[in-house]
Amino acid sequence: MRTAYVTLVTNDDFALGASALLNSIAATGTEAHRIVMHTDGVSDSALATLVGARLVRVDLLPTSDAFNAAHGRDRIHGVAPFSKGKKPAFHTPLDNFAKLRLWQLDYDRVVFLDADTLVLRNIDRLFDYPEFSAAPNVYEGLGDFHRLNSGVFTARPNGDTFNRMLAHLDQPDKFWRRTDQTFLQDFFPDWHGLPVTMNMLQYVWINLPELWSWQDICVLHYQYEKPWEDHAKADRLRPLIDMWHDFASGRVPDLSALPDPCTSS
Asked: Fold for domain 3-257?
């Protein structure tokens, strides 16, 4: 059985994230392949930093002009603004749909990870989970549990599935409020729930510290602001940012030495 961890990189900023992600995956001892799907928006110098991964060039999806206009950055941020956190300037919503290309890969089972995640413990067991499994989009309260977060999910690549996705995606007047995330929840309405520890969103550190347990977290997801940029919440998220920089530098941090969110300053 061919298995792989897959991420998507559409610009040099996300290549920074993917480099740290790859280091974190390698530290878990997995024997699964590591795949970086990348578009032409990534420079050769940035691609050269993605050590240990198979690089697979992909195109953006062949969506209509009307679809592209509806999901452009200014349009989608105007109609469905991000009010809970700030998306970085390099965030291009339309690019998110390119992750559907993973259903075209020559693997039996994959686990997708956004480039702004870190894998803190071996998660190879996810390859045995059914398609489509994802964690809830929890970072404010219990009301978040009904929505999935597409930063971590399981999939079974299949050309027929990909073609059905394209047919479902680009229909007249169709608007996916949170791009691939909203689309995947609609395409897989009976999605299987992973525990929040498989996709722990960084805002939990601030908003729901009682959910935070370093000994249980398997994947940490830096949603909204990224750890490699300066931002207004950096001081409050400093332990998480410092940990990201450790992985980016090739160091494996001691999770047992990290502070608890309830007591960190």
From this structure: Spore Coat Polysaccharide Biosynthesis Protein SpsA; Chain A (3.90.550)
